[in-house]
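U., I forgot to send this yesterday:
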Amino acid sequence: MTENELRPRKTHINITAWVQWLRPGLGVKRWMGLMLFGVMLLGLGAAFILVEIYQGGYLPPVLEALTMQPIPRVLRASGLGVAGVVAVIYAFGRLSRELIVPFAPEGRSVATIVAERRRKRRGPRIVAIGGGTGMGVLLRGLKEHTSNLTAVVTVADDGGSSGRLRRDLGVLPPGDLRNCMTALADDEALLTQLFKYRFGIGEEVRGHSFGNLFITAMTEITGSFEQALAVSSQVLAIGGRVFPSTLEDVCLTADVRESDLQPAQRVTGESAIPSGRGTIDRVQLHPETSAAYPDAVQAILAADMIVAGPGSLFTSVMPNLLVRDIAAAIRSSRAVRVYVCNVATQDGETDGFSVDEHASRIRVHTDGILFPNVLANNCYKGSLLSGAEWVKHVGNANGATQVFEADLVHEKSPWRHDPVKLSQALLRILHHGQVC
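Result:
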């Protein structure tokens, strides 16, 4: 053994971490009080026995010395009480350290984690509807404020790894659902990085995400896609819930028109729609009578806020709203309903669209005003991707009763939303009815 290994280890007492246990709202002090009360009852019981022994004259000389007879009774009681409280608190701290600290993230105290989780449990019930990378941005911002999050995600994806699994194995596409799970999980966790990992070699697995393969395998093991999602959520310990909008095998089609003088052409498949030449007139979900996932409907009806977007208007957001029961639940909900418009246009989907055109297309597809509030970006600094343009608010939002504008862009990637700015703007709308 080296000299350093032979030296005794020093125990550092973090006073700040201990004081955090005294913060109100942790829900810990009540149980500490109950434990102290229980110890006190045990002590009283032992005291009664000792009194009987003492009064009966059976007290051995050793115990007689330990009772500190020369010291006044009040001082003896006070000293023993203080010593008992110190011993119980120290034992509780050491026990919690041995049992909980090994599962806590490095560098964070247990008290901080408990306080944070309790704060998030009291947060608002928010349902996010959409898919793709936009949904992940939204969830990463909101998860810092509440754990009462539900993501309702499209299952119309038929491209990439999800599309291959869908065609080869007949499972629902797991890609967008996996993205939402990793967004709600701890981004620094090893398991989260594992779920994001995409194979770069191997003829059969190249291009597949490990998370997609895991969810597919769990579907085979558990016998149901929804159970596979539940198990995957437990593995990642996500701070919320992720539901598909429907469990049916749906297909997205679009009517694309190259010019006003030419008839619209039908494009089939979510991945093929953005590559179609022309302007999208309308998208449809087949079968049109697809039943909504019941838990998703319940979450919508119980929500304090429902947020659609950000994300691809026609291929990420709209497929969820075309599930009739989802749209009906949103319409019936008393929650604050907000559509988050994209920062920049998307090539092949929303070329030249304004904020008002985005809101108008949702209104036309859902036969009414599902989202009376629209949140749009008003900061146009930075360079966008080739072919993209800023999405601006230029007039009446065609049925949206109110348009909120704020700086929502990400400094390094201005074509995307900043998760912190976006979540703060939404919470201000929820709590104060404004973004300023």
